Amino acid sequence: VASVGLGKAGASFNYAIDWQVAWSLVCGVGLVRLWRWPAPGYGRALSAIMALALTIHVYVGDAWSWVQLPSPALLDAQTRVLAVVRQTPGPIWSEDMTITMRAGKEVVAEPAIVADLAVRGVWDQTPFLAQLRQRGFDLVVITSWDPNRFTAEMRAAVEGAYPVVERIDPYILY
């Protein structure tokens, strides 16, 4: 069911998990059947080649790039931004909602979702833009102005109302 959403804005590998689980089971059954092939050695050789090919695909290809651990520099940046967010007394709007939640702050709006809803005309961003223009947040945290995550109006509102307070690569704090 989730795979239907693969074509939507913001979709990622997680929308294909149901297919990956199903195909993993099929591949596992196939490997076992090859291993038990009646011809001496033939099935085992084929299953070993197949397992090796899958391993090479996973580790040499880009199949697992999304599970790479963050670099020490990124972990340091996240720790520093988390400290700033925790010290900020009022509301914040952050692209990195994990930092927001770890700081014990409310996630006001998820940028990619509200941007997509605004672009589709399902959500009126006018009140939110007014809140940004009136500096309704004590802190705004951005990692990139990806057009899939922000509308042009959101970016203009933030850049017009908030000065850059600090840059902690890749974070920009307004």
How would you characterize the largest beta sheet?
A: 4 strands, mixed
What is the strand arrangement across the widest sheet?
Answer: 1-2-4-3
Gross morphology: elongated
How many H/I helical runs? 7
Structural class: alpha+beta
Would you mind describing this structure in some detail?
The chain is α+β, with helices and mostly antiparallel strands and 174 residues long. Helix content is 50%, strand content 7%. The chain has helices at residues 17-35, 42-60, 72-87, 97-102, 111-119, 126-133, 152-161; strands at 92-94, 139-142, 166-168, 171-173. Strands 1-2-4-3 form a four-stranded mixed β-sheet. The longest helix has 19 residues, at 17-35. The protein is elongated.
Spell out the blueprint of helices and strands.
Elements: H1 17-35, H2 42-60, H3 72-87, E1 92-94, H4 97-102, H5 111-119, H6 126-133, E2 139-142, H7 152-161, E3 166-168, E4 171-173
Parallel strand pairs: 1-2
Antiparallel strand pairs: 2-4, 3-4
